[in-house]
Amino acid sequence: MADNPSSASTSNQDSAVSATGDNSRSQRGDRDQGGRGRGRGRGRQDRGRGKGFGSKDSGERHKKRDMGRGEYFRNNLDRRARNDEQHAAKRRKTEEGGQIATYSTPFTKEEIEAETRRPKRKVAVMIGYAGSGYKGMQINAQEKTIEGDLFKAFVAAGAISKNNSDDPKKTSLVRCARTDKGVHAGGNVISLKLIVEESDIVETINKHLPPQIRVWGIERTNGSFSCYQTCDSRWYEYLIPTYSFLPPHPQSFLGKKLVESAEQEGVFETYQSLQEDGASFWKDAEDTYVKPILGKLNPSMREAVIATIHSSEEEEDEGPKKLTKKKVKEDSKSRLKETDSIEPSVEAMKGEETAVKEEEPAPETVSVLTPLEMAVKDVKTAYITAKKAYRISASRRQRVQEALDCYIGTRNFHNYTIQKSFSDPSAKRVIRSFKVGAGPIIINNTEWLSLKVHGQSFMMHQIRKMVAMAALVVRCGTSIDIIRESYGPANISIPKAPGLGLLLERPVFDSYNERAVREYSREKLDFDKYQKEMDEFKQREIYDRIFREEEKDHQ
Asked: Cα(180)–Cα(112) distance, rounded to whole angstroms?
């Protein structure tokens, strides 16, 4: 062997190659059995055992990870079946609690089986509504909502089958804009699957709706259409009385605090110049409306009324004391106990409580007004009458527009909604325009401004907080820089303007409309076709309602 070294070398190499090949095949087999491509460790001895570097895996078969796709889906419900099971569980829970969903129309099994099946089509339904008396747009099993009434009308008109009448998700219901409680809409869109074979389906649906909800039209769309996803932007309108921009009364708590703050910061002259157009209003209002009432009071009562009107407590709008008959009786009993030294027995007290409960099944509300409270109420009414007679000046109206201009562009509106932090990317929204209407509106001797905002999308309470911030800046003579500061990381508490004046004017579908004609051979989603009906509806059901309810709140 020593004489032929090459032969020995060749033999050793062949053995090495054979051993290596066997080892490689063995390792491949281990990897195939232990899981493909997993667990490449540092050492050769750990390959194919599911032990990667730093792994805590003990090498046993991982059930979910090693389960084949077919086995996994055989052991798990498909998504539709899972959703059906969840909905069935919700219905069982509702039935057990003795409650029926507000949108549900119950049918017997025989009625459902007897119904002829008809094809459903994906459509966009263009609607308008007055939100007063409703808990918002989005459907809710236990609350009265716009979608709930629409869903019931679809079922009653035959646009939704009886088999699908218990669950809106079976129709793929999606709304374009989810308006809050009490918010109105001249134009909004929902997309869903409906049975729209009859030519008069819109009229049939409207017959089953209250007057404050209307369907303008129904348009066929492509099968994957979602009005929420395809909406480019939205137009909103907010109606606000111009006296909301009035400076506070100089003798009020807020008026005094503003002057004090301006003096401390050395901007008193600037503050005075901003409030100059409203300074004379309060003097004229008192001369015309308030002094005739105060002149009828004696001097001590007059001073008490003035002090009460302008105190900080009155800024919180304390009303007259409300007493119930039960409260009056309890007070009289307590006075009797003070004069009577003999304590009644426990049995006697129980007997008295039982007698009171039997006599008073439902406490009645009784307003008890003292002479001072009656005089304060009369003066407050006079001030409200004076504020309704206010007409905004051109300079103050321009200042409103300057405040609204601060919202234009992409801004971080985390302070203008709830449960969003400065670092949340979804807090950034795009505002394309925010304009004061061309001219004020005079209704029942009250002047109103129309504020129209156009944006890509809006968060909860965002528009109402934007309006409130602008009103506070103008009313309090504050620098508009505070609006720009509100986009920063600092948390600022901003109040909401009332939801009564907010109106969704219409959503915009420009991108979809181009594709609808070019690719899908479908009609555009165009509210202009229904402009006349929409204008009449807005005036009758929305504008008049806003003015009427505002008037009622100040009675």
From this structure: 35
